[in-house]
Amino acid sequence: MVLTNDVVLPEESELTVEEVNLSTATLRAGSFHLGKYCEKANNEFMLCRIEENDPRKCINEGKVVTACTLEFFRKVKKACLAEFNQYANCIDKSSGDYGLEHCRKTQGVFDKCMLENLNLERPPFGYFCEARVHDTKRPKPPVEEKAVYPDATPALPDDVERKPARFGSRLYWMTE
């Protein structure tokens, strides 16, 4: 990546946060409940990333997501450690691709514990695919003006004769 002198990079102290130091199986075991628990923080971060189109402007939102994740796993450790470890161990050992299909019994035990102790229900299938409106307190970034280049190649005028493609359309199956 090429940078110029006018690009300001954040200091290392701004980027330093406590990391979520967990294995893949552990993260997969808690992923559904974690997604539900940290939904607001995660949606705020993703909205910032998409709107700003610059990751440097969303550092604080990313820190909030990391803090929420750490808080979630600390609560799981206090409330459902045995059930969670059993489920994560099953995911780790039952298949080479960390599949969940072999661990439905341990998943049920973990889900029940999460519901009873943390009042956090496992989201239904397709929950994270549903469209939602996220309300944010951040101001909307200004819309950048489209760049205008004075030496750009001009477009064809609207009144020019447009002949059909020489060998027909490549999208012939779409014409009906």
From TrEMBL:
<keyword id="KW-0999">Mitochondrion inner membrane</keyword>
<protein>
    <recommendedName>
        <fullName>NADH dehydrogenase [ubiquinone] 1 alpha subcomplex subunit 8</fullName>
    </recommendedName>
</protein>
<comment type="similarity">
    <text>Belongs to the complex I NDUFA8 subunit family.</text>
</comment>
<dbReference type="GO" id="GO:0006120">
    <property type="term" value="P:mitochondrial electron transport, NADH to ubiquinone"/>
</dbReference>
<keyword id="KW-0249">Electron transport</keyword>
<keyword id="KW-1015">Disulfide bond</keyword>
<keyword id="KW-0813">Transport</keyword>
<keyword id="KW-0677">Repeat</keyword>
<dbReference type="InterPro" id="IPR016680">
    <property type="entry name" value="NDUFA8"/>
</dbReference>
<dbReference type="GO" id="GO:0005743">
    <property type="term" value="C:mitochondrial inner membrane"/>
</dbReference>
<keyword id="KW-0472">Membrane</keyword>
<keyword id="KW-0679">Respiratory chain</keyword>
<keyword id="KW-0496">Mitochondrion</keyword>
<comment type="function">
    <text>Accessory subunit of the mitochondrial membrane respiratory chain NADH dehydrogenase (Complex I), that is believed not to be involved in catalysis. Complex I functions in the transfer of electrons from NADH to the respiratory chain. The immediate electron acceptor for the enzyme is believed to be ubiquinone.</text>
</comment>
